[in-house]
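Pipeline run #58 for the internal structure catalog. This entry was flagged by the ingest filter as a single-chain record with no existing model, so it goes straight to prediction. Upstream metadata was stripped on purpose; only the residue string is passed forward. Reviewer on rotation: M.T. Logging verbosity set to normal.
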Amino acid sequence: MTNQDNNDLEKIQNKLDLKQFSDYQIAISKQTLQDQYEKNRRDLERYKIKFLVSILSLVGVTGIVSFITLTKTINDLRAKVTDRLDVEVSRIDTTIHNRLDYEFSTPKITKLIENKAQEYTEKNAKNYIETQVTSKIEPFIAKINTSLIKSDNLLKGTNDAIIKANRQLDDLTFYNNILNLQAEALSGSRNAYNKLYKIYWSNTINKVFVEYAIQSIDRYYENIYENIIAYPGLESKSSDAKIPTKELFDNLNQNSTRLSLKLKLVIIGKILNCPDNEIYESAYDILKASESLEACAITTSILRNKYGTKATFMDFDGWLKVINEELKK
């Protein structure tokens, strides 16, 4: 049963109590009027007897006639009194009912009923509500807490999985970046090659992978040019036409990706026949500023073939130091 139902029952009970009270008051009023009527009637009877004795003693037979007339008058008076009493009782009954209806409809009575209903609810429903909370609500809350704990654990596991996935994604992104730089370097980009070295020196987690990418680039160019330059008789295959050393290096630098391997070998052969100082000066310019990784690889191959292993293949900074020392002599 809800609080609203309890309030409605309380209002109905109060109204029934007021109705019983009004009926009781009406009954009391009727009884009072009836008692008053009986008293008046007895007084009239006594008055009639006294009056009759007085008349008989005074006038005799004439008094009897007067008595009969007086009796009729008294009966008429009694009828009028009875009618008047009935009217008065009806008026009182109507007044009481109207008064009760009026009082019951006033905000004061309504407020009283609401207060009583609230008191009844607080008194009788409190234990029931507490029992319901204990027996039903609290287990439900416990289930919710359990679900929340499971959700937290699941969320934690999900977050760990997300973190792991993000790390793997970062790794994949890193590997993809390294592979892209490797492909650009194999296509002749010195800038990509330099970026790989910067990553190698700054990265400690995936250092081995970056090192492998650099070594694969070095082996690629070394297999092409180091072995070819070491081929016996390469110098004698070049023509006798005199072309400035710097122009030969510039041709390799600007067209290394477009020239055929045969033409590159011809140019390399001519360079090997140039004076040492011119080779050093032109090689220095290439290793210092060229953006072509292939041109730099060819230059280091020429230097290793001409002057031995004073620095390793693709060691651009090492060869620059060697050239500086040679030019000072």
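catalog note: Residues 197 and 214 are 8 Å apart (CA to CA).
catalog note: The radius of gyration is 64 Å.
status: ready for reviewer M.T.
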